[in-house]
Known about the structure:
disordered N terminus; alpha+beta
Amino acid sequence: MRTLLSRTALLGAASLACLLALPARAPAQTRPAGGLEAQVRGLIDASGAETVAVAFRDLETGRELLVNPRVSFHAASTMKLPVMLEVYRQARARRLGLDARLPVRNEFRSIADGSAFSVSPDDDSERTLYGKVGGTETVRELVRLMVTESSNLATNILIERVGPERVMRLLRRLGARDMRVLRGVEDGKAFARGLNNTTTAYDLAAVLRAVAEGRAVSRAASREAAEVLAAQKFREGIPAGLPPGTRVAHKTGSITGIEHDAGIVYPPGRRPYVLVVLVRGLGEPARAHRLIADISRAVYREAAAPRRRDVRNLRRTPSY
């Protein structure tokens, strides 16, 4: 027995010596600890923003990232997305023709007390429509101006025509249970009473996913909506974090202390993904734009950059 134990000890010592003599292996290449979520939360923490919400859903893999997904924000111009979809729904139902002409006027009724108000060209990102007051414009062109140029005047004309209550019903059918579209833009009395359009990152992602999957009203309407969104003029947010030439269909929103971007990103050779970033409480718009672009860049690198993806790390959940 002692001889057997001695031989075992000698073999163990020899094996240990051989292991110690082997050259050290280079450390394995791994992703940063925590992966995409850690990167995104690190960017948010470093930004100094009061509140940031992120909703990411990859339609290729099912991967998902949610940060403050149900926190409510002032919707700003992101509310123009569901207004566009309701226009398409009514067009499909033959309640409204896309080539029909609507009167262009700048007088609207407050939802607070019914008093008249108008929108100012000085506070609008699109001014050419004001030159057509007293005339008419097609529904199709009003939609384009509302989304790609973020025209407040076009928005108020359209939402008055289709009705905010119908926009809300459409949102609920698309799975957006918390987003509220109560009124048009610059209704000061309603704002003072807290009667505002609001959204969550989760709800905007649900709406955009419906567009990306051809479920928003119809496949044809979804395609047209995506084309209008892809012509977006304001590209300081999500597009700024993407490789040049990457197609993105998105809608921005901006008011004092608020900067949002919500879009569908189409990397080449794969299905798209949805990304929503809502930012509150960064004093300078440029800082918020940089944050949104940085988050967009991180998402693209982790989820869509051309490389072999480890599907074992993907979390598949039946959300939106």
